[in-house]
Amino acid sequence: QQFSQVLEKASMGSELTKEDIVTLLQALPGEEEEQLFQLADKVRRENHGDAVHLRGIIEFSNYCRNDCHYCGLRRSNKDLKRYRIPMEEIIEAARYAAALGYGTIVLQAGEDPYYSGEQLADMIRRVKEVGDFAVTVCVGERSREDYELMRKAGADRYLLKHETADPELFAQMRPGTSFEERIKRLNWLRELGFQVGSGNMIGLPGQTVETLAEDILLLKELDVEMAGIGPFIPHHQTPLKDCGPGDLKLTLKALAVARLVLPLAHLPATTAVGTLHPEGRKLALSCGANVIMPNLSPATYRQMYQIYPEKAGSKEDADESHERITTLVKEMGRQISTGRGDSPKEHFKN
Ligand code: SAM
Ligand code: SF4
What dihedral angle (degrees, nearest 10) is formed by the CA atoms of 251, 262, 196, 105? Predict the structure, then answer.
């Protein structure tokens, strides 16, 4: 297939097939890549304007019962000092977010069974008392009852990345878990009325450009309100320590194609792309992304939330992260959004 024909088709807003997506993901360096990125940037502007939404993230526990091959928080990593942030400090971080004008707080953690559904619900309630935030929860796979408790406590959104649309690779990378169970939960979250976020990593060993096309088609099928697409970055205390990181250009191309396929979705310029390359987040914002997730975790905990090493911002405090990100957005001639940044889909409008 000709790249230019597929790009033309995408620019008309026609539905893209798997083959089309593969063609776009194989855009050649130079003119083809440039055209793809420009179209994604245009589609972003038409659907979301120039505002960049900031989602302040609090990484409240690094305990995890899982053993994902790619992640530094995996339970077999015995060298990692584990922590749980006390509730008062979580509230303190939320107050700080309110002072900075953030519209969304993301509560993220490893899969930590220490917290009951009730406790998570209580955390959500208390954070929501601090300000007029939307709350996104990202704590992995839980029971349907727990998700329901969280939703009733006021959680607005839930982020559960599908990680890879290849069920075999999924099972290999996440021992003891299955792709089917993951998707089942994404469907529950939808039924419970959450704004649903999912997404995948770029560059897992064994991944192909066809798998990547399936990742994007799955996001479309799930009709996600948010899609986190970022590079895999190896961590020295994991089984994938000798693998190379995901490719920057391929990550940007996947992001751009996701923008074409999901014009209404929120797409973050991920911390991982900012870690892979000093200009990573800026580049991502230029080819479809419209969200950044600054870290609000107190500085003492940041270094211990080592999903992968040298995570962008892990040596800063919340003030510095905020400052650096707002400067970046302004330098690009874009604005920081002031609202909650809900999905622009009709039924999620506040
Ligand atoms: N434990 C929950 C879960 O797995 O859904 C939430 C926290 S987990 C640390 C958040 C995300 O980190 C995962 O969805 C995964 O995509 C990402 N992640 C983990 N290890 C990574 C790595 N080495 N490189 C890039 N992203 C990684
Ligand atoms: Fe745990 Fe999530 Fe890391 Fe897997 S990706 S080890 S579930 S924190």
Answer: 60
Distance CA 301, CA 193 (A): 32
User: Is 163's C-beta closer than 6 angstroms to any atom of ligand 1?
Assistant: yes
pLDDT in tens, 284-293: 999 999 999 9
HSE (CB half, 13 Å, CA atoms) of 58? 27
The per-residue pLDDT for 1 is 74
pLDDT above 70 (res 135): yes
Binding site membership of 308 for ligand 1 (Cβ less than 6 Å): yes
Instruction: Using alpha carbons, list the distances in angstroms from residue 160 to 210, 227, 246.
Output: 22, 10, 20
Instruction: Give residue-wise pLDDT tens across range 39-89.
Output: 999 999 999 999 999 999 999 999 999 999 999 999 999 999 999 999 999
Rounded to two decimals, the ipTM of the complex is: 0.99
Using a 6 Å cutoff on CB, does residue 72 contact ligand 2?
no
| Rounded Cα gap, residues 42 and 181, in angstroms | 36
Q: Residue 6 CB: number of other CB atoms within 10 A?
A: 22
Distance CA(107)–CA(181), nearest Å, equals 22
- Residue 305 in contact with ligand 1 by CB distance below 6 A: no
Please enumerate in sequence order all residues whose Cβ is within 8 A of that of 325, keeping only pairs 6 or more positions apart, or say none: 54, 281, 292, 294
Contacts of 176 (CB under 8 A, 6+ apart): 66, 67
Closest residue by Cα to atom 2, ligand 2, is 110
Q: d(Cα 37, Cα 259) in Å, to the nearest integer?
A: 10
pLDDT of residue 129: 97
- Residue 63 Rama label (left phi>0; alpha psi -120 to 50; beta): beta
Kindly give the distance from the C-alpha atom of residue 32 to the centroid of ligand 1, in angstroms, as a whole number.
Answer: 31
Tokens of 152: 């009733």
Q: What is the pLDDT of residues 291-339, one digit of tens each?
A: 999 999 998 999 999 999 887 778 787 778 889 999 999 999 999 998 8
**Ligand nearest the Cα atom of residue 57:** 1
- Domains of the chain, earliest start first: 46-340 (3.20.20.70)
